[in-house]
Amino acid sequence: MTGWIWERKYEVDSLRYPLQLAYLLWKKTGETSQFNQTFFEAAQRIVCVWTVEQNHENSPYTFVRDTDLAEDTLVNDGRGPACAYTGMIWSAFRPSDDACIYPYLVPFNMFAVVVLGYLVEIIDSLFSDQHAELADDALHLREEINQGIKEFGLTKNAAGEIIFAFEVDGLGNASVMDDPNVPSLLAAPYLGYCDIDDPIYQATRRTNLSSENPYYYEGKFAKGLGSSHTFYRYIWPIALSIQGLTTDSKKEKAELLGLMIACDGGTGVMHESFHVDDPNLYSREWFSWANMMFCELVLDYYDLNDN
Q1: Backbone angles phi, psi at 244, to 5 degrees
Q2: What pTM does this model have?
């Protein structure tokens, strides 16, 4: 460890958001100046890193911190928990910055499938003469990751339904839970991985919005997804917004918006999390991401998200 503020916590999603932003800017506005030499050098690096991390044994990455918090460092001298090859991308940490229990985090890989498709579309539409090899590499990687999700990223809930696991290790272990952050299993349609009415997604949604998910909490004032990263029985407005953005029910969207407004602790803004039995107890007085997700759900409710 050094005095650097950036702490090298490798999460697959950190490399996906720049590609998503560049793609959405193009699709919404027609702007293409972002697709310069720097962009394609970065895209090449991203595809390279993800390809390496399909087989973590070949990776130079380790992370060790002198700490008593198991979630803040990696086991096995910084190499992380044992795993087998699946075709999916290995990750060290979750969106919450907590260490993965099993290192193939399925929502991360879902999002990777989506943004690799974006990269292929950008090249095929605008740069097929210059970057055809990168498009081929991205498409091949995308297919391998998606096949890995289908073969290794599924498990069963208590009712025997097939659902998406949250994390797997390729050795037969899988976790039934979700993260209230994004990417998450709940957010799969929002990210563009599957349709809202996909039967495996719907079974996963029902499972994670129930007591079968160890981080789903119901209380006097609210119910929703919490996290091991925040206090017991605290739920996240980000997850409530994602719940609303992944349903076709106007009634459910309105109920979730009303719930978040009623549980702002009298502050007029969203927080990172709040207690289901007492909304005056919350973490982070101001959390920009939660506020913006609330705004996005408002726009979605009024059918303004495409404007």
Answers
A1: -70, -35
A2: 0.95
| Cα angle 21, 49, 26; round to 5 | 20
Please state at what angle helix 17-29 crosses helix 106-126, rounded to 10 degrees.
40
Provide mean pLDDT across the span 6-23.
Answer: 91
Among residues 112, 117, 113, 93, which one has the least CA distance to residue 103? 93
Query: Are 74 and 8 in contact, with CB atoms under 8 Å apart?
Result: no
Whether 99 and 76 have beta carbons less than 8 Å apart is answered as: no
Q: Give the burial string for 147-178 (b: 16+ CB within 10 Å, else e).
A: ebbeebbbbebeeeeebbbbbbbbeeebbbbb
Inter-residue contact 275 to 231 (CB < 8 Å): yes
Residue carrying structure tokens 């081929």: 136
For residue 83, the Cα-to-chain-centroid distance in whole angstroms is 20
Please state, in angstroms and as integers, the Cα–Cα distance from residue 77 to each residue in 57, 65, 198, 220, following that order: 13, 10, 40, 44
Distance CA 45, CA 101 (A): 26
Share of the chain above pLDDT 90, in %: 91
Owner of token pair 């090859």: 85
Q: What is the pLDDT of residues 103-132, one digit of tens each?
A: 999 999 999 999 999 999 999 999 999 999
Contact 131, 51 (CB under 8 A): no
Bridge partner residues of 168 (DSSP): 104, 174
Q: Is the pLDDT of residue 78 over 80?
A: yes
